[in-house]
Design brief:
The complex is a heterodimer. Chain A is mostly beta strands. Chain A has four helices and 27 strands. In chain A, strands 20, 21, 22, 23 and 24 form a five-stranded antiparallel sheet that branches. Chain A is globular, with a radius of gyration of 22 Å. Chain A starts with a helix and ends with a helix. Chain B is mostly helical. Chain B is built from four helices and no strands. The longest helix of chain B is centred in the middle third of the chain and has 30 residues. Chain B starts with 10 loop residues before the first helix and ends in a 6-residue tail after the last helix. Classes of the chains: A mainly beta, B mainly alpha. The interface between A and B is large, with 38 and 34 residues.
């Protein structure tokens, strides 16, 4: 009798251990890209599935690019490069930083924080903007200079008529810029404060309207799906429209969970964004997306996703908000963690790359099969996506399953006719250019 | 143990047992408050109470299992603790979900189960006259 009960106790213990370990869901092949992604039912597993690609470094290897293109690292040893900007004279600016100061509220935050740290480089953010100059456009940087120092997790960059705008994690700054300068020591003017507490999603993406009269700042949510309470979500998961002159702002669009990159569509001057959607509803929910940001639109977060798909985790639920929610334009796939967006201008690379946008997919840890870890090309026609995403830069995951790099910001450089990719794991800026262009420049 | 030791539990064991007895019902009260208020902090409180109960209950459970294996403890007591602990572990994972899913019906039921079993184990532990663990 006693031995019997002991076995029961042992079996109960074994069950608890296996419960902790079994929660992995393999993702079947589902098409989750394009305007109408397949959206499976929600599945909340006891333990959310996750897989960390441990960093390994490139060790002389290079990312893979399509035939007819070459890739070179133009800057290494940076301190967490995130977003870039090409100035009118062709100088390349790189924002380096790592922000966020959200407190750990529950045991999960402590454990998840540790797990996520395994997939990062461990480099401390530079809190600066670095300038790279390649005056003869041969793909080799002759001059590398810290343009602005002492920033606070800078991310978004924009340039308008002699003014350089930098979006720190807590404010939008303006610096006077003279063509050719390599160092700015004057302190920035605060255009406006940006919502900064507690900055669960800290990145502040930034773009200037085509005529330079307005700035747009993407402000991410303070939680996955409201689990830090809705009080901290005031002015979060929104895109602000800001008047550069007086700093006045209005909410341009809302319910857009984490708009990590903004760009102006050259075909119609609309604001477009890539945004990261919510986790822990399954390996195939919810697709991250690329969308035009419609003024006044509500994109669902946190009450619903992809239009009217209500999220049961939000209480009190708000059916009237779910009814208001619109679906974004174009799905990029679940958990790809899109962090970069850049349209080509002036005919781009020509051929199949004449009209469209590049999207940098950082890759994420919350599903078993790695998603993202690449840069994709999305062809456009008449200002709208016209076709499936195509791999453009790959090879960020090595054959050993370890991450050599992780793409973040992508910037089409119309001056040097190249694509720039910031890699915040190997702390590198990659430059991808057509072979013909390089041959011509020689 | 010397005969003068009249308690069924070693004093250290008794001290450790007091934690799940207090913390699991505390977590249950927090869960009920969360479900009534949708105020996330109550769910966070519950998550920490459950974690604390699990950490301190682990040696209590081991103590009971070892005693039972040596034929000196009560198997009913050990099984009560084991089921309490497993329900608590599943509940800790449940409480790691976001928003309403951190508690919901599943979390509430698991909190009730681990609370009732913690109280039962406490009753057995503190009332027994023969060696329990």
């Amino acid at each position: 009798m006693k031995a019997e009960s002991t076995r029961t106790a042992a079996a109960a213990l074994a069950l608890s251990l296996s419960l902790a370990l079994v929660a992995c869901d393999r993702a079947p092949d589902l098409d989750q890209t394009g305007p109408r992604p397949a959206l499976p039912g929600q599945s909340e597993t006891l333990v959310p599935p996750m897989k960390i690609a441990r960093p390994s470094g490139w060790n002389g290897a290079m990312p893979t690019v399509p035939r007819g293109f070459s890739i070179t690292p133009i800057a290494t040893g940076l301190k967490v490069p995130r977003q870039m900007l090409v100035l009118p004279n062709g100088d390349i600016l790189v924002a380096e930083g790592l922000g966020g100061n959200a407190p750990k509220l529950r045991p999960k935050d402590v454990i998840a924080g540790y797990i996520k740290s395994l997939g990062k480089s461990g480099t401390k953010g530079g809190n600066r903007v670095t300038l790279l100059r390649d005056a003869n456009r041969d793909g080799k940087v002759e001059l590398k200079s810290v343009l602005i120092d002492g920033l606070d997790a800078p991310y978004g960059l924009a340039y308008v008529d002699g003014a350089l705008y930098v979006a720190n994690q807590g404010e939008l700054l303006r610096f006077p810029y003279r063509e050719g300068t390599t160092r700015i020591d004057t302190p920035g003017t605060v255009v406006t404060r940006l919502p900064a507490q507690p900055n669960h999603h800290w990145t502040k993406s930034l773009v200037a309207s085509a005529d330079g009269s307005r700035l747009y700042v993407g402000i991410g949510s303070n939680s996955n799906v409201g689990e830090r309470g809705m009080a901290v979500e005031e002015d979060r998961a929104v895109v602000w429209e800001i008047e550069p002159g007086n700093g006045a702002h209005r909410t341009y669009a809302s319910g857009i969970r984490n708009p990590t990159a903004l760009a102006i569509n050259p075909a119609n001057q609309q604001v477009w964004a890539v945004a990261n959607e919510r986790d822990e509803l399954g390996a195939q929910l919810v697709p991250d997306y690329l969308t035009s940001v419609r003024p006044g639109a509500f994109y669902g977060w946190p009450y619903s996703y992809w239009g009217a798909h209500a999220d049961p985790r939000v209480h009190p639920q708000k059916p009237e908000m779910v009814r208001k929610a619109i679906a974004p334009d174009y799905a990029l796939g679940s958990h790809v963690a899109a962090l970069g967006l850049s349209f080509v201008t002036g005919g781009g690379f020509g051929g199949a790359y004449a009209d469209g946008a590049f999207v940098g997919e950082h890759g994420s840890w919350n599903r078993q099969e790695l998603a993202g870890y690449k840069v994709v090309w999305i062809p456009f026609t008449n200002g709208r996506p016209a076709g499936k995403p195509q791999d453009f830069v790959t090879g960020f995951i090595g054959e050993d399953g370890k991450a050599r790099g992780r793409p973040v910001g992508v910037t089409y450089d119309p001056v040097g006719r190249a694509l720039l990719v910031a890699d915040d794991l190997s702390n590198t800026i990659w430059r991808i250019a057509p072979d013909t262009a390089r041959a011509r420049s020689r | 143990m010397p005969a003068a030791h009249s308690s069924a539990l070693h004093p250290l064991n008794a001290l450790l047992l007091a934690f799940p007895v207090a913390l699991f019902p505390g977590a249950l009260l927090c869960d009920v408050t969360y479900l009534n208020s949708a105020e996330m902090q109550w769910s966070n409180f519950a998550a920490w109470l459950i974690t604390g109960a699990l950490v301190v209950a682990a040696p209590v459970l081991l103590w009971a299992i070892v005693a039972t294996l040596r034929g000196r403890g009560s198997a009913v007591y050990a099984v009560t603790l084991a089921v309490m602990w497993v329900a608590g572990l599943v509940n800790a994972f449940q409480h790691s979900h976001d928003g309403w899913s951190s508690v919901g019906t599943t979390g509430l039921v698991l909190s009730i189960v681990s609370s009732v079993l913690a109280l039962a184990a406490g009753w057995m532990g503190y009332s027994a006259r023969e060696k329990l663990a």
